[in-house]
Amino acid sequence: MSADPLLSVDSVDAGYGDTQVLRDLSLSVDAGEIVSLVGRNGAGKTTTLRTIMGILQPTSGHVTYNGADISALDATETARQGLALVPEERRIFPDLTVTENLELAAHGGTADDSLSVAEALEMFENLRERAGNSGSSLSGGEQQMLAIARALVSGADLVLLDEPTEGLAPYIVQDVMDIVAALNERGITVLLVEQNVQVCLELADRNYLVDQGQVVYEGTAAELEANEDVLDRYLGVTA
Amino acid sequence: MASELLQLLVDGLTIGVVYVLLAAGLSVIFGVMNVINFAHGELFALGAYFALALIAPFGGSAFFVALFVAPLLVGIIGVGIERFTVRPLYGRNPLYHILLTFGLVLVINDLIYLIWEPGSVTLPLPAVLSGSITVLDVTASVYNLFIIVFGALMAVAVWAMFEFTKYGLIVRAGAQDRQMVRNLGIDIDRYYSLVFGMGAALAAFAGIILGGYQTVNPTMGMSVIIPAFVIVVLGGLGSFRGAVVGGLFVGLVQTALRTYAPIFEGTGIFVLMIGVLLVRPHGLFGTDAGEEHAGNLLSGPRGGFLDPQTRTRLGLAMVGLLALVPLGAGTLYSTYAVTLVIEIIIWGLFALSLDFVMGYTGLVSLGHALFYGLGAYAVALGLSHVSQSAFVVLALAIVISAVIAWGIGFLSIRVSGVYFAMITLGFAELFYNLLGQLEFTGGSDGLFGLSTYYGLAGVGVELDEIAVFLGPVAITGQSLFYYIALAALVASFLLTRRMLNSPFGAVLKSIRENEQRATFIGYETTVYKRRAFVVSGALAGLAGGLFTLNAGYATPSLVDWLNSGEVIVMVILGGMGTLYGPVIGSGIFFGLEELLTGFTDRWRLVLGTIFVLFVILLPGGLVSLPSRLAPALLGAPGRGPNPEPEPESNPDPEPATDVDDAHTRGDD
């Protein structure tokens, strides 16, 4: 891997109002990697993504992307730097059609759109069939695909994926994993939040274990799988 | 018969097109920016007046020029309004916008009075558009047909703009999920000025069109804004399609009712709106996706700057001071002072009642004048039909208001946020229109010439016949009533404070903080909200009853929506969620009005400007002033647990949705 990471989060504190969620959290993601954040409910995984994206501002510490400090930027500005957040609730625009959802994303994000709307519809075949349907008529799996496609069309180089497999049927989980792998092959870096440890072990190059707003463990899939103590203590799964 | 129906269609569509153009802007402005723009009606009127000014020097042929230039000018004014007054408030509670745009109504309306003459004026029309055409027994004026065709073209153009342009796509997406548009790297705030300007221009178009059809007059904005709100709610907030369908529908229904059932002309559309909202809480074409979390409620600093002991002493001193007012009347100052302070006390009680439900449960009642009016009419009717005892009729006022509040609460608390505000407004307007129609309430004249005595079962006194002597001062008549009103206010304050300190109050506060979590704990929040609404309605009824006892009359104007707006202004002005703040707000409101009317006829212009500046500069209400000024005056930060006002201390202008929060903050 290259010397400078694409994204680095250094000693970040963040929270909502008086409630501090992240405590001195640090992590880094190299270009081309798939990195996962695992941890229990309330550990601060989503808050980490929101802070990187600029929806929340860190109260101390720094977020650096491509060598530039993006801690003070808001979500609009971060998106223009090439980050895209695929939020947990997906947040498809319900009254816009699938195509319009994608066109909107093409208007935003970075200037160089690596993927056009037409190419995205080519790549995601189940979306192509439903191009003229409204966002609200899509199934959970289709919404997830659209949310990911939207991030691609916006020209993102780093996609922040929040629980992409949550609430999806097992065979659709596999589809989503295939898509994540496919975008990584296109050179897109992925920071993934997952509760499903199996998904992480299969997809991610490296894993961070987050507990009570801090990184408590870092390791490759093989290392994590072998560490029964960590799996048991923080994730409640016995391998 | 057929020709009659066609005639109806032409007339209905004419009005309908005006409504469509008016409501489209209002709806989109709400959908995208979450701004309830009361000033929209004034922009509508401004369009007509600008056209008037443009046409006057050249005669009717300049109409077509004015039809484009005037909306352009109003559009520019709209952009200015968004840029300099609305923009500083983004991310705060939509209630700020009510106060802001209410202030703008006063400013623009008074400017119209200042610049143009107060009466009705006809807008000169070009020769091409005068005269009429008769086809198949149907006579339609050329102007009507022009309106329908031109309006339809405008609506199609706006629709096409929304549907097929990048600008339209971004605006539509913004109406559904603003934060996600930002997440995609689109600076949605930049589009707000354009949306506001475009809405203003459309309103101006509508104003010119209606001005040419009827007349141009300074109240045209006031009379059209409520139907416009009805249409927006009916169609679904933020939905352009809803505005089109709703506008045409209301135009046709109103025209049909005027022809066939004039009794229902005023009330019909409100029944329609309430009915639609009960079945479809988000209107015909609305989606709940567009509705955002209510955001930070603008409560005054909790705990406050002063410690409880000092505050109790201050409160007692205030009451003591108020108790002294009648003593100097007629000697130190004119007896008018007593009249003025009675008004402040009654409206203070009214504002307190609204604060109890708005400040502590987050339910914004936009029709609270309904309960004020109910109390007033209960007293008036009670005095003429039931008993002349003041105590009996006041009890009647409280009971009737409470019962109606329960019924309205039962029907409307299931809808939330702005829809609740609109449904309460609908009920108030319904009552207002009924009052004007019904025989036994005295129609639009109301009931007057009422007399009363203070006692029970025929044994009692009239205030004018007795006097209490305190040394050289004799207190009689209105001065005695003054103490009754003051006692009612103090008792209501103590009662509501006692309620809020009880377990009931704790649940109310938890609803205000986060209703979803209160539900998760197992509280049936709608029941608690309804109880609070009943208490609030009862106290508002008491205020209205006191008004009629003192004034000796009740008229429909007591229920005017402006009164509902003014009482909200008082609550926000004084500081919401404090109970005493709204009373101070009432004092400031009438005090300012009194002061300003002494200096200038254009006092509403000044008052409106004060509101606008106030909401931008001092969002926590007047009660937040001490803790804001403390650091500067004392050189030390204000004490109190929350010296900084809410909005600044929150780094995230649009807090995450509840689900999101619960997820991240959950501690298991």
From TrEMBL, chain A:
Residues 7-237 form the ABC transporter domain. The lineage of its organism: Archaea, Methanobacteriati, Methanobacteriota, Stenosarchaea group, Halobacteria. It comes from Natrialba asiatica (strain ATCC 700177 / DSM 12278 / JCM 9576 / FERM P-10747 / NBRC 102637 / 172P1). It comes from the Archaea. Keywords: Amino-acid transport, ATP-binding, Nucleotide-binding, Transport. This is ABC transporter. Transmembrane segments: none annotated. CDD domains: ABC_TM1139_LivF_branched. One of its GO terms (biological process) is L-amino acid transport. GO terms for molecular function: ATP binding; ATP hydrolysis activity; branched-chain amino acid transmembrane transporter activity.
From TrEMBL, chain B:
Residues 645-659 have a biased composition (Acidic residues). One of its GO terms (cellular component) is plasma membrane. InterPro entries: ABC_transp_permease, LivM-like. The keyword rRNA processing does not apply. It is found in: Cell membrane. GO terms for molecular function: branched-chain amino acid transmembrane transporter activity. It comes from the Archaea. This is Inner-membrane translocator. Keywords: Cell membrane, Membrane, Transmembrane, Transmembrane helix. It holds the Pfam family BPD_transp_2. The keyword Cell membrane applies. Residues 634-668 are annotated as: Disordered. The chain crosses the membrane at residues 12-36, 48-74, 95-116, 142-162, 191-213, 225-253, 260-279, 340-360, 366-383, 390-411, 417-435, 480-500, 532-555, 567-592, 604-625. It is a multi-pass membrane protein.
